[in-house]
Prior knowledge:
The chain is an alpha+beta fold. 25% of the residues lie in helices and 20% in strands. It contains 16 helices and 24 strands. Strands 1, 12, 17, 18, 19 and 20 form a six-stranded mixed beta sheet that branches. A hairpin with a 2-residue loop joins strand 15 (383-385) and strand 16. Helix 7 (309-318) packs antiparallel against helix 10 and helix 14 runs antiparallel to helix 15. The radius of gyration is 23 Å and the shape is globular. It starts with a strand and ends in a 5-residue tail after the last strand.
Amino acid sequence: xxxxxxxxxxxxxxxxxxxxxxxxxxxxxxxxxxxxxxxxxxxxxxxxxxxxxxxxxxxxxxxxxxxxxxxxxxxxxxxxxxxxxxxxxxxxxxxxxxxxxxxxxxxxxxxxxxxxxxxxxxxxxxxxxxxxxxxxxxxxxxxxxxxxxxxxxxxxxxxxxxxxxxxxxxxxxxxxxxxxxxxxxxxxxxxxxxxxxxxxxxxxxxxxxxxxxxxxxxxxxxxxxxxxxxxxxxxxxxxxxxxxxxxxxxxxxxxxxxxxxxxxxxxxxxxxxxxxxxxxxxxxxxxxxxxxxxxxxxxxxxxxxxxxxxxxxxxxxxxxxxxxxxxxxxxxxxxxxxxxxxxxxxxxxxxxxxxxxxxxxxxxxxxxxxxxxxxxxxxxxxxxxxxxxxxxxxxxxxxxxxxxxxxxxxxxxxxxxxxxxxxxxxxxxxxxxxxxxxxxxxxxxxxxxxxxxxxxxxxxxxxxxxxxxxxxxxxxxxxxxxxxxxxxxxxxxxxxxxxxxxxxxxxxxxxxxxxxxxxxxxxxxxxxxxxxxxxxxxxxxxxxx
Length: 545
């Protein structure tokens, strides 16, 4: 499941444990940093694979991005950084149907061969072969909206679409999926073979990104080293980068305190203990470029009540997001009610801006909506209708119980019984994904978005990532309009319909507080507000005390 990336500002918390003694010298080469997956992004979980075509989570995405340079590098302000992109230039036809992409000639694979259009073509055609097995199948119109894909030469290709589109949408959500992959090395490998080698370091020996894969031990850790043949700017300083797979907040905090981990998010539930961490400095990033949510299984007849938008909207009004931010995130968060992140506010509709400012908390309105939907108070205050109680069970990753417990109490006050069940992240994915995964009730997770925040693959009927079995013809029509229309009107209409119907219950976005050992530098460039992780900017030296 593709999860969250980061939007918003990057700032400094008063950490007080690191005091500079004279000027810090320039970057140094060498050293090892031990961290965990998902820093600045989400609570950590294990990495399970490195193939960009087959990644199933934000943690896999983050790891794969160290090995393979993107066709288009999107900056924190939604611009394309040409120096870090494989693509040099994109030309769009006047009718917004034909996109001609020219590649830089200096990019090389680690075996010395050039990165060419054959590598982009391999990615495109493999996405076609994979179909919905590709996590972002159909996102940005790849490959579903493509009429033809033509290689015009080793450094030039042309994509013709079936109908005109908003170029900004297609470039940022479609072309960004076409990360070049080593065609010469992978061309003879079947789809089954790709899965067989999903976490095999020997399979990923040819890379064009700043790092290479050194070792992987399932369920324990992954080790990266510098790609000494990297032909892009900003070559890595580190000798080794190790990601340890820890899952609960206590283990992360203990790892920081004992020095076994040098960079990690400070778990929100352990904020009161942050002053006991010595020799660390802090930065904040976020909220995520995506949304936190409580998602429902519309195919489960046991919770058929979620198909009534009045019940879902009642839940939205029953939840006091400002209290969640204060208690769950210790003030490090922002209100959010829709599918588009509030930070930066580039794509927010007037309705979304107003709700972020005022909040939607109104338990009286929540009770009225539930009564109008036919749900009336029963035993112990839980509402009933036709002999059925208004009850569901939410699956949540380990260490995430604090927020859901608050939500449970808030929903109980309007007559909804929400039960909590912790599960490892990988088990939640296994239980909830796939056409036959229909026995669960609800999940408490996060979802990441493309740079242009439309979400046909998530919320359209039969969408590749629509694990919720949600289907709404009005939503489909609104989603179909977003890639075509210029301006912001279509995006606003989709956003507002979502807010008014809550296909998933959107929850506050949190900022992440990153703890880093005092002698580690380069965090500002390594952790981007859009969620990118670029450890090639990290270096060790000039310890501050």
